[in-house]
Amino acid sequence: METVSPFSDRTLQLVVLVTFVILGCALVFTFVAGWLRTRNIREDRRWTYLEHIWEPILFAILTGERREREIYARVLRKDRRRFVTFLIRYARQLKGVEQDTVLRLAAPYLEGIAEDVRHRSPEVRASALQALGELSVTEYHAEFLHGLKDPSLLVTMIAIQALARHGDPDDAKKVLQVLDRFQHWNIGHLSTILASMGQTCAPILRAALTDSTRPPRIRAVMARTLASLTDVGAADVGSQMLQSESDTDLVVALLALIEKVGGPEQLPAVRGLLHSPDHAVRALAVTTLARIGTAEDAGYIRAALDDGSNWVLLHAVRGLEEMGATNLLTEVADSEHAGAIAAREVLWREQA
Amino acid sequence: MMRDVGVILLIGVNVLVLTYFVVLNSTYLFTSITAFRSLRRYSRRLKTVNVVQLIRSGAALPVTLVAPAHNEEATCVDAARALLTLDYPEYEVVIVNDGSTDATLERLIEAFALEKAPRFPSSDLPTAPVRATYRSPHYRNLWVLDKENGKKADAINAGLNLVRTPLFCVIDSDSLLEPQALMRVSRPFLEDVRTVAAGGIIRIANGTTFEKGRIQDVRLPRNLLARFQVLEYLRTFHSGRLGWAEVNATMIISGAFGLFRRSVVVEAGGFATNTVGEDMELVVRLHRYCHDNGIPYRIVYIPDPVAWTECPETIRTLARQRDRWQRGLVDTLTRHRRMLLRPRYGTVGLLSYPYFYFLEMIGPVIEGAGYVAFAVTIFLGLASWPYVAAFLALAVVFGVALSVAALGLEELSFRRYKRTGDMIRLFWLAVAENFGYRQLNSWWRIRGMWSALRGKTAWGEQTRKGFDRQDSTP
To answer: Which of B378, B404, B415 is the best residue to mutate to test the A interface, defined by the most A CB atoms within 10 Å of its own CB?
Structure first.
């Protein structure tokens, strides 16, 4: 009987050929996976062995029982990078004199790491800068400044973090110059990094905040950072900006700044935002009023209870709690008002 | 005449099956290759991230974990305890008891000394009636919401109404998050505000031992079906999800573990309550919503945050699960079919949607037709044996190659199965799954397709052992 085949013999040959090619790929994948496993096991064993040797010596050096050169004698050339990685772990955990000892121990091996800062792979460059940042920003300062101009955002961010921790105002200017590249990053995250520069950098941050040529999100980062640093001098700047700025992120950040460091002088600017079309702005304006406002502002906050947004309502209830308006809250909680549950929640929390 | 028609029909089916097979495996190969590049780069980048420092810095965005629970009395307390011990600076846990008929609520009340407490909603997504909200005096960030049964999506929406943080994480109450998983999965939201959703990897908990909700020892399960699923999950996540994420075309974030931007999900209407594939449906809807409204967005998959979940160990429960998955897939893809091959939806409309539509949704039917045609051809004595042998060999070898590639990716990156014996077993399973398990899977998916056409919407029950009672290997 005739067999069914829509394909020619050439097709069959092709299928067989492809089968063998794929089989070859499968064998290669198997070999690679096996090789990776062997390499990983070897690496794990090497690490365990080295930790077993280095750890007791390091502890003895930290307690002054042994000398630093004794650990150097146990670091083979091929294990130098492993040794730096080992020290980074302790540099992160220790403080003060002990941390200084660890940094000193790492110093002779950092030159090799610094060479990687110009490697073609951004991940290698980032990794090298990360290691230098943990162990010696001062010694390799130029590498970090170079990192700020790196085309890779990953590398630049690691340089920013290291320089921010270093806290030099001259570096702060350079860091802020490249920050526009990170305008898609989370504002809070960036401000946490910048805040590590410390209060001495506040004037530079204030100048950047008022620079209208910069993206609003980056200026919002400045406002958040100044709030984290509790920079009282920024309050006036913030309230002036509130009257002219319209970007939601920036306005919300300015409100957060005024909430933290503002006073009665800033109240008119804040009150003006109670009718903003953006619920996030209205909600934070209510919170800010509750924090820095006068008795007069309780009325504004009471009125915010009738705002259509659940968020504004929630902020209003919390604001009333902050202002000690317990009677009003009890009245709302016992009513059919839309905010009754929110008021009950706040009162329940107070009782608890 | 009849015979000629039959022969032409068989030839047609053969060509269709072959085309399907070539396109499907080429796609798998493509995603595996992109996943390899992506995973290698990601693993290197990970070395520059100090997760502990990130946690301590206070930069992390506040998160609310929403865990729907329906008849989870065996696992809910362990799972809740594990959620309360995550390494994350600021988070709340909202467990939603979705009308359980067992002692889920009682177990939670007893374990955490819960008290009734009011909680004002941040949004008003419609849900089945809420009976009460509870709070623990000992764990101030733990809330339990008790509501009437409305199925999983409804329970998530009820939890979502209580969320006050910018991000919320959906996690199955029978899944366990690794302590740093939340920090790891939230990183994309810190590095790009356009991120609206991020998913992590789901790993099979069967066989692995846990104590007080923390992993003690990762092992392969003893149950063969569960072992096949370990391999299947590795392939799906390492090769599939990562590959699609690389071209910004992620279509699924598992309902067992996904982190979302609250505002966008609420604006998009929350989880759809009239589907059993609410996780995929939401992700596809987010793509559509963001594109339609001109919102710049990213939906990402991150390979290192891990949620461990218990998988079915019997044919019956596995069949039910696969049936449900296929129904969810069919429902989502037909619901949003206007995205299919539409350039305005970018790589989703042009790449991943067609892939899921033609290969994952209709594929099992083509594959099933192929098996039938194959059987008929042999039965009628029409088979060209060299072809049959060559195609079978190619199918098996392709399947093995793709599975082995996934195992290579695992070894390249996270190496959870430390025992070499476990890896060898996985290699063996990569061959064995081609003889029975894959065919069974196709059959379940065909049944799922049929169920979808019949409008079946049931979830089906699944029994859980609980994490601290997993089958520990000797």
So the answer is: B404
